[in-house]
Amino acid sequence: MKKFNRKLIRGTNWALAGLLSLLGFSSCGNPVEEYGSPHADFKVTGRVTDEAGEPLSGIRVVQTNLKSDFPSPYDTVYSSPDGSYRYRYYASYAPDSLKFTMKFEDPTKRPDYESDSVTVGFAKGDLKGADGSWFLGAAEKVIDVKLKAKKKS
Asked: 23, 117, 122, 140 - which has most CB atoms within 10 Å?
């Protein structure tokens, strides 16, 4: 009985290995299939300056109201020494349009500048460079902001 069970198991293993190898080799010549979802790249760039046009560094730029199943891990960026900033939102399940608010604030303990916010909107027609597959394209907007000095009291 033991010999019979061993032969049955060994025979089954050989049959499965042969079947799997045939299936594996038969699928090697097929074209690549794509799996995924439509996605797009949205970028907002610009400069933060004071009322005199001087660049402001270290200004916190926060995206405040974008709700998503996959939120961007980079919802906050800071302006560089030349006042420039760059915010990127990679949208999986790309929407037909996208609208969010960006808040500009002085993060110091005693802020010298008033906070300001700007609403940025993208439409489907703004997307450029689609590859005809899952990538729907990229859109970029330039938003320059002038922050007003806080009134000294």
From this structure: 122
DSSP assigned state of 8: H
Give the count of beta carbons closer than 10 Å to the beta carbon of residue 19: 10
How much is the pTM?
0.67
pLDDT tens, N- to C-terminus, the chain (153 residues): 777 788 888 888 888 877 777 666 555 554 444 566 777 888 889 999 999 999 998 988 888 766 655 555 567 888 999 999 998 887 766 666 667 777 888 888 778 888 888 888 888 788 888 887 778 888 899 999 999 888 876
* Contact residues for 105 (Cβ-Cβ < 8 A; gap 6+): 59, 60, 62, 111, 115
Quote the DSSP letter at residue 128.
B
Q: Which of 6, 77, 91 is nearest to 47 (CA)?
A: 77
Cβ–Cβ under 8 Å, residues 59 and 147? yes
DSSP state of 38: -
Q: How many CB atoms lie within 10 A of CB 6?
A: 10
